[in-house]
Amino acid sequence: MRYLTSGESHGPQLTTIIEGLPAGMPLTKEDIDFELARRQKGYGRGRRMQIETDQATILSGVRHGLTLGSPIAISVENKDWTHWTKVMGISPLEEGQEEEIKRKVTRPRPGHADLVGGIKYGHRDMRNVLERSSARETTVRVAAGAVAKKLLSLLGIEVAGHVLEIGGIRAKTPEYPSLKGLKEKTENSPVRCYDKEAEVKMMEAIDQAKKDGDSIGGIVEVIVEGLPSGIGSYVHYDRKLDAKIASAMISINAFKGVEFGLGFEMARKPGSQVHDEIIWAEENGYRRKTNRLGGFEGGMTTGMPIVVRGVMKPIPTLYKPLQSVDIESKEPFTASIERSDSCAVPAASVVAEAVVAWEVASAIVNQYYSDRFSTLKELIEQEKLNGRSF
Ligand code: EPS
User: Cα of 40 to ligand 1 centre, how many Å?
Assistant: First the structure.
């Protein structure tokens, strides 16, 4: 399976094309809109989210609620486009229009793609960079992720993401939370946090950052439950599923690090406190006493839940900007101020769910490929049983 995305933040729409999904899988617009709405929530976002009400239009690949096996194209309209038709117009500019309508960006924001992207592509108006490097693009990654989540849920595999930390405030969570319990607590939390006490402090930290013209980052966690063992492979580096998930997590805008299970804490513990002892029982086959490795051994799922975390840096667009240089005059200036969020970690936890779901679904489809969804389902059910008789 593969997908592409296209679209600028203030252009007419965002689009994704998904290819390789089997035929006969139930899929509706509502499945996608549900996830799009989850991504739009979250304390700390700016005014843009009041403008947009993201809705998916399925343009191809689905008929009467079932996938056809052909590419699925999904678009999401940018409502804000109506305010940007001139600035982001498609047609060539006419003489004299340039200064009037272009809102040229010449003072790159430290931490954003502005300067390096401008140098790389030769864009002296760095709006040409920021329009695509904007996290608005994650909208359609969530749309693609919604399709992946649907496939997984039909195979009995559930995915849930939540916020562990914002601005240095860490949530207390059970070591192995049930996904149902996790979803109940986090779904209505303004910061998608399990711990009510931490939630209040996180919101205060976001308010403070906003007041200071600053931004704050955090840590999100995604858990995937109900997997058979052996998804991914140890035989070649580019077939290791944990590596693919790590890459997908890092590809989320502003993400700078990834860990599985105990993560970086493993460096401080002996092997006896890191590896997960193996047990066997008639009713569910091989299991582990613990899940410190976060569901992976040798790049393959162990059958225990995948537990992956990603760290998001504070958003680089600051209302009290850092020092920069105007690329026209080469004089020192403070960076451009673009409308932005003070904290997008809650939304990023939904994006993280989407990208993890995509990698897991994609690995399953690659491994048990069938043109028909019904056959894929049978194969996965069989695989879940196989581990028991080994
Ligand atoms: C973003 C800047 C803001 C965010 C945007 C990401 O957009 P705007 O400049 O239009 O106010 O709201 O995120 C979204 C639009 C979104 O849908 O998540 C940036 O610079 O990355």
Answer: 11
